Amino acid sequence: FFSSNPGRGGREPPAVEWVSRVMSDREALQRLSGGENCLLGMVTGVMAKSCNYPFLVWKNTQQQGLPISTTWTTAKGSFSPLQVYRGLPMACMNLGGTNAVQFGATGFFQKLLAGSGMGQDGVQVGGAFLGGLASGIPCSIWELCMIQQQRFGGSTLGTPARIVQEYGASSLSRGATMTMGREAMFTMSMLGVTPLIQQKLVDSSGWERNTALAAGSLSGALLAGVITHPMDTIKSCMQGDLGRAKYDGIVQTGKAIAAEHGVVQGLFKGLFYRIALISTTFFLVNTFKQRTVPLLFPHALKEADKAR
């Protein structure tokens, strides 16, 4: 929407430069209402997931010990690149819905913490952590359906119906604890650490905003990816095995993975694809957030201008 390249030897037009500065400000989510934050999170989530979905499929496939080649071959063994996009509608619903909860809850908790007198850095990171924790509940159900679709096919509405029919309604909560812990760290890194690093690099080192965002995205992805990957691996294995043929509870699943593949090779399977997924998600979500707010909520610009 707004070009980040000011041209050889020039600078961005004043209006574009002003919008870029305001919308990358770390108080952006605090300027919007709860409903506006939810809508912003949904839009940016769907846009990001449509771009990097194959990384998610390959990560889930590798974590479950399945050949990567199964993601682009049909049941009959024929080559089909579109296979890797199987489950994309559910994934968009998952990330769009999860982002909506994350943005909404993060904005709520940031306002709450700001009112308590906490410093801005603490408000940004702490609010994002709590927002992510809350988002883990619906995210777990959506990811369960997505993983089941990736493994066994089925429609967006038919998959959850099949799960309840075969395993009972309680099976929809399988992996929820691991998902909540993972999303808390994930959101803290995406909406807290990443924009914080970007702002620090711009203010103190004079980095260009997109370069600083890329550095912040990679740093946040490494932090969130490495710390939470064992939780994500255990969750994926549990949700891929609803019949509990191989994986039962959290502790048993972790022990089974470690015994079969080793602690590092087992619990950190698919880490490369997850780092690629998270870093691109952080970059895309924060980029889309900065570019989308002026389109969807122009009143935020006026409020920001008055505040300055």
Compose a concise summary of this entry:
With 308 residues, the chain is mostly helical.
What does this molecule look like?
It is a single chain. The protein has 308 residues and is mainly α. The chain has helices at residues 14-23, 28-31, 34-63, 88-115, 120-152, 158-167, 176-205, 209-240, 250-261, 263-267, 271-296, 299-307. The radius of gyration is 20 Å and the shape is globular. The relative contact order is 0.14.
What structural category arises from helix and sheet content?
mainly alpha
Radius of gyration: 20 Å
Our measurement of the CA-to-CA distance between the termini, rounded to an integer number of angstroms, reads 24 Å
Mean pLDDT: 82
- Tell me how many strands there are: 0
How are helices and strands ordered from N to C?
HHHHHHHHHHHH
Number of helices: 12
Q: Which band does the percent of strand residues land in?
A: under 5%
Q: What is the global morphology?
A: globular
Main sheet overview: none
Oligomer: single chain
The parts where pLDDT drops under 50 for at least 5 residues are 1-25
Helix content: over 70%
How is the secondary structure organized here?
Elements lengths: L13 H10 L4 H4 L2 H30 L24 H28 L4 H33 L5 H10 L8 H30 L3 H32 L9 H12 L1 H5 L3 H26 L2 H9 L1
Helix pairs in contact: 1-11, 3-4, 3-11, 4-5, 5-7, 7-8, 7-11, 8-9, 8-11
List keywords for this structure.
single chain; disordered N terminus; 308 residues; mainly alpha
